[in-house]
Amino acid sequence: MQGKWGRPAVSGAVLCAAMLVGTSAGAIAQDKSGYSLFHPTPDGQLREMTTDRPDATESPFTVDAGRFQVETNVFGFARSRPDAAGAVSDTYEFATTNVRVGLTDRVEVNVVWQPYGIVRTRQHGLATLRDDGIGGLDLRAKLNLWGNDTFDKTGSALALLPYVSLPTDRGNGISPEYVESGLIVPLALKLTDKLGLGLNGGVSWLRSDAARSYHAEYLASASFAYEWTDKLGTYYEVAARFNVDDPCCGEAVILGTGVTYALAENLQFDAGVNFGVTSVTDRFNPFIGLSRRF
Questions:
Q1: Residue 21: inside a domain
Q2: Domain membership of residue 268 as a residue range
Q3: Residue 182: which CATH number?
Q4: At the N or C end, where does the chain have fewer CB atoms within 10 A?
């Protein structure tokens, strides 16, 4: 989940995250505990579609039981800051996809995979280096503790999101080199009928190379989402990682903004850009995406 955080390799988790404005104003809480993967939620009882993208702040809302949601980062680009030797990397991300499956009314599982990526590294006076290949495979689960169907009434929603990232092709510059894991706690708050606040806190266990052991990195983010119309929304975000395993560069902080547009009830387009604030992050990272619920 570090692809937008300044690393040249994309781990496969599109931290690309949520328009945290919850269910529609007219939604009425219903008992949907009887629905499951093999007994899908009827169309008339579906929650308003919410996504775990485009921002890096994860949503606490799950996909309805028996339903599937495909969220794709169609294209992303990131340019790094020069390293100590003056080398700059350009990263191209293609079709990284999060497939979300509703198991019950409160539990979903996710599979996130990047089918292809390219990293080009150039340094003055030297030949440009190119790495390409597939990204890592992320397996995730989300348990909504409250607020899935009562967000409009209670004004809050909370979930737990554990994950594990698996290497697929070590050494290609795209996939992570080692197994990574972590836990994220997403919280959504309804501030007004139009304005929502998403908050994340979490921890990741990472390993940068064979000579070092696993260490904990901590993450925090806040994302304000505003609904301009029933179809158009924007978000404004700050996200940070702490205890980064790179003592020369300090903590990682990004600022992000973007837009979402509902093309249909079950189809959403998005676009955004992240800007690195600290030296360990990429300078900028624009992207576009598409999400579809089935």
A1: no
A2: 43-293
A3: 2.40.160.40
A4: C
Q: Which of 55-59, 121-125, 155-159 has the lowest mean pLDDT?
A: 121-125
pTM: 0.87
Neighbouring C-beta atoms of residue 48, cutoff 10 Å: 18
In-domain check, residue 82: yes
Reported as half-sphere exposure (CB side, CA atoms, 13 A), residue 241 has a value of: 30
Residue with tokens 């929650």: 47
Q: Give me the residue label for tokens 């992320």.
A: 138
Establish if 7 belongs to a structural domain: no
CA 188, 193, 194, 195 torsion: positive or negative? negative
pLDDT at 165 exceeding the cut of 80: yes
CB 54 within 8 A of CB 287: yes
Tokens of 193: 């009928």
Of 215, 254, 218, nearest to 236 (Cα)? 254
Specify whether the CB–CB gap between 198 and 223 falls below 8 A: yes
Whether residue 212 is contained in a domain is answered as: yes
Count of structural domains within the chain: 1
Question: Are 141 and 148 spatial neighbours (Cβ–Cβ below 8 Å)?
Answer: no
